[in-house]
Amino acid sequence: MSTTLPAIRIASAVDAATLSVFARRVFHDTFAADNDPADMALYLDYAFSESKQRGELADPARVCLLVEHEGVLVAYASVFRGSGNEQVTAGHPVELERFYVDGAWHGRGVAAPLMAAVREVALEWGGDALWLGVWERNPKAIRFYEKQGFERVGAQTFTLGADVQRDAVMRAPLGAA
């Protein structure tokens, strides 16, 4: 296996099909064991269709970062400006909508550089805080975000199919450390 670090780039509309397949698979792999299959299927069809990905990639208020290794997608993050949350104290909050690393790449040095790229995008937009919602039953992700400087500031609901779940809302400051 190559020791070259994966490359990070901004996705474009031509990536919609690949992103749709990858996002569906990684979300399913991450959450299917803990959720009803019918709810999972509904959510996957809603959130990760190729047409929805194409629309999000064309949205000037969003940036999707792809991490590729030898031409294969191994992780991605989606960042959204103009999205606030009443629990997030910030003048110019930027939402980290999605942050997923293929399970085979966990622990291989992909997540931290991707988070650094997310922060760079948010700073370029003039953001002063980065925020996200993470399922409260995903302790591994919560620990990662805490290591990245995020703190819990509240909770919100997240609907997976017909199942209303609870996400922790987390916030990290941007700018000078």
From TrEMBL:
The keyword Acyltransferase applies. Keywords: Acyltransferase, Transferase. GO terms for molecular function: acyltransferase activity, transferring groups other than amino-acyl groups. Gene3D superfamilies: 3.40.630.30. InterPro entries: Acyl_CoA_acyltransferase, Bact_Acetyltransf, GNAT_dom. Pfam families: Acetyltransf_1. Residues 17-175 form the N-acetyltransferase domain. PANTHER family: AMINOALKYLPHOSPHONATE N-ACETYLTRANSFERASE-RELATED-RELATED (PTHR43877). This is N-acetyltransferase domain-containing protein. It comes from Gemmatimonas phototrophica.
